[in-house]
Design a protein that fits this description.
mainly beta, 14-stranded antiparallel β-sheet, 16 strands, 14% helix
C-alpha cells in the first residue's frame, strides 16, 4: 500500500475534479470577460431569441434517452524526496465506459438519472515499474480478496441513481452504499480504503453533474460566464474559480457543437479538514468543451490540470507536482 499511496490519493483528487462540477450558481460575465451589467443579466440573456450566433447552454436529459460515455484520465506525479538523488515519478491511467440517462421526470422539473459502469481500467506505474494493473474485460486471476481489484471488477453492473434540480444540479445520490455492500467493501483493509478515496460518494456524484458548468440560458458567441465552486474530495475540500467562454461553432462527429473554452484556478478550501494532510499550493485548470445544444449534452471534453501539492508524510513535507489530462467523449446515444 505504501508504494502506491501518494499516487492513488492524487488520482482520487483527479477523479473528484474530472467533471469539474458541484452545486453552484453561474455568474454571468460580459463578452469581454468583465462582470455583466443589467444589459447582460441572466434573465435578459435567457429571453434572447435563438440564432446562428447563440446557443441554448443547458443539459436537457430527455427521459428515455441513454448516453454512452467514456472518461480517460492520464496523470503524472513527480515528487522530490529528501535524501533521494532522483525524484519519484508516478503515473496513473484510468479509463471508464459508463451509461447514463434520465429514467423519470420529477414534479419540480428535475430528473431521476440512472448510471451504470460498463468497463474500466486502472494502471499505476512508479519509476517505470508496474505497481498496479487492472482491466475489467480480462478474467479474474489471483486477485487478493483485500486488494482493490475485486472491488474495481464488482463496480461493473450495479446502478447509481441521481436526483437533479430543474437546472441540472445533482441534489441527491442513491445506490452507493448498496454498491459497496454488494462489492464486499472491507473498511478495515488499507488497500480497500484507497479504493473508497478513489470512488467516494462525492466523486461518484460528479458523473451526474454535467449541467452544473452550464449557465442554463441562451449564450452568444464570444460571451463568457463564471462559476465558483467548493468540491468535497477524499483529500479535502477544493475551491475552483472557473471562466467559460463560447468561442465558436465547431462540428464534432457530424454534430453542430458549441466550442466552450475554460480556464481557472484550483485551491484547497480554507479551514478544511481531512485525515490526509494534503493541500493544493498552486493549481491551474483549463481546456475545451464541445456541447451539442440540440442534443443537450457534452460531446467531447479535453481538460488539463496542473497542481503543486503540499503533503505532510510523517516528519517530511513533500511537494508533488501533478499534471493530468482528462478526456470525456460521447460514444453513443440510444432511446
Amino acid at each position: 500500500m505504501k508504494k502506491t499511496a501518494i499516487v492513488l490519493l492524487s488520482a482520487a483528487l483527479g477523479c473528484a475534479l474530472w467533471a469539474g462540477c458541484s452545486k453552484s450558481k453561474p455568474a454571468p460575465v460580459g463578452a469581454d470577460g468583465a462582470g455583466a451589467g443589467a444589459s447582460t443579466s441572466t434573465a435578459s440573456a435567457a429571453a434572447a431569441p435563438a440564432s446562428g450566433n447563440t446557443a441554448d447552454m443547458r443539459v436537457k436529459w430527455p427521459v428515455g434517452t441513454k448516453y454512452s460515455m467514456r472518461m480517460e484520465l492520464v496523470q503524472s506525479v513527480e515528487t522530490k524526496v529528501p535524501n533521494m538523488p532522483e525524484p519519484v515519478v508516478q503515473k496513473v491511467n484510468i479509463s471508464q465506459n459508463f451509461d447514463i440517462g434520465a429514467i423519470k421526470e420529477l414534479p419540480n422539473g428535475g430528473r431521476e438519472l440512472e448510471m451504470q459502469f460498463k468497463s474500466q481500467t486502472l494502471e499505476v506505474d512508479q519509476n517505470g515499474t508496474e505497481a498496479l494493473k487492472f482491466d475489467s474485460s480480462e478474467p479474474a486471476t489471483q486477485e487478493p480478496a483485500d486488494s482493490i481489484k475485486p472491488l474495481l471488477r464488482k463496480m461493473i453492473g450495479p446502478k447509481i441513481y441521481y436526483t437533479t434540480t430543474a437546472t441540472g444540479s445533482v441534489d441527491k445520490v442513491e445506490g452507493v452504499d448498496a454498491m459497496m455492500n454488494q462489492m464486499g467493501f472491507n473498511r478495515k483493509s488499507q488497500e480497500q480504503a484507497m479504493f473508497k478515496q478513489l470512488f467516494s460518494e462525492e466523486t461518484l456524484k460528479r458523473y451526474g453533474e454535467f449541467g452544473d458548468m452550464m449557465p442554463n440560458r441562451e449564450v452568444k458567441v464570444g460571451e463568457s460566464w463564471s462559476v465558483n465552486r467548493t468540491i468535497p474530495t477524499g483529500v479535502g475540500d477544493i475551491t475552483t474559480d472557473m471562466k467559460y467562454t463560447f468561442k465558436k461553432w465547431d462540428p464534432q462527429s457530424g454534430r453542430r457543437c458549441a466550442l466552450i473554452a475554460t480556464t481557472g484556478d484550483l485551491a484547497s478550501a480554507p479551514g478544511g479538514t481531512t485525515a490526509t494532510p494534503i493541500k493544493i499550493e498552486k493549481g491551474k485548470m483549463g481546456g475545451d468543451i464541445w456541447f451539442d445544444p440540440e442534443l443537450g449534452m457534452v460531446v467531447n471534453e479535453n481538460i488539463t490540470e496542473d497542481m503543486t501539492l503540499k503533503v505532510t508524510a510523517g516528519t517530511q513535507n513533500l511537494t508533488p507536482q501533478i499534471n493530468q489530462r482528462i478526456h470525456i467523449s460521447l460514444l453513443d446515444v440510444s432511446h
